[in-house]
Amino acid sequence: MSNSFVPKAAAQVEHDELGREELLALLRDVTEQRDQLLSQYEAMAIQVDESTREISDAMVDARCNAEKLVECEHHSEQEVAHADQVSRELDKERRERIEIAAEFARFRDAMEHAPVEDPWGTLWRAVSQIVSDWVAWVRAKFPSDSSLLPWFDRVIVLAKAVGRLALKWGKAISKWIEPRVIAFWRWLKNEVARRIKK
Questions:
Q1: CB within 8 A of 27, min separation 6: which ones?
Q2: Predicted TM-score of the model (pTM)
Q3: Residue 23 phi/psi, 5° resolution?
């Protein structure tokens, strides 16, 4: 019985040792495969991270480009609107210039064909009309709610009053000085003639 047990035990030990070596070899193989798989997974994870980062950067770039495009379109629309406004203002200025030129042409025609009885009065009316037109043009440049508009009107009223006063005084001085100038001219002419005769 002891003889039959010994070979069985030896065979069992040998089988256990062989199984242990195989198990260790299998364990080493499995460990190597596991390490390889882990390194492959790590490499794949790095690639996925890089790809994710690249996609994220591309999405950020695309979003920035879209925002820039929207901003450029908005700026372009503003520029087009500004150009349209400037064009309208230029057209308005051209129409006003044409109207002013036509008005001056009518005025010139009326002055050329009007009988002149009082040339100084006609000149004064023409100057008054031109000055009135310029004053109206300057006044139209002020906004209707401007605080300077009442002051401008007061200055114009004052200028008209000063102009009327200057005209009145000019006429009075002209009437006063005219006979004296005529008398002085006669005296001077007589004096020159008397001295020539000597």
A1: none
A2: 0.33
A3: -65, -40
DSSP string, 113-137: HS--S-HHHHHHHHHHHHHHHHHHH
Can you give the pLDDT at residue 37? 84
- pLDDT for the residue 33: 87
Residue 144 carries which DSSP code?
T
Q: Compute mean pLDDT per 10 residues along the chain, 198 residues long, and list them.
A: 50 58 81 85 83 83 84 86 88 87 79 65 78 88 86 89 86 86 90 84
The Cα–Cα gap between 186 and 189 comes to: 5
Give me 103's structure tokens: 């008005």
Give me the amino acid identity at 158: L
What residues have CB less than 8 Å from 135, skipping those under 6 apart? 156
3-state secondary structure of 104: helix
At a CB cut-off of 8 Å and minimum separation 6, what does 111 contact? 122, 126
- List Cβ neighbours of 114 (8 Å cut-off, separation of 6 or more): 122
**How far is it, in rounded angstroms, from Cα 103 to Cα 123?**
17
Longest alpha-carbon distance in the chain:
196
Q: Which residues contact 100 (CB under 8 A, 6 or more apart)?
A: 133
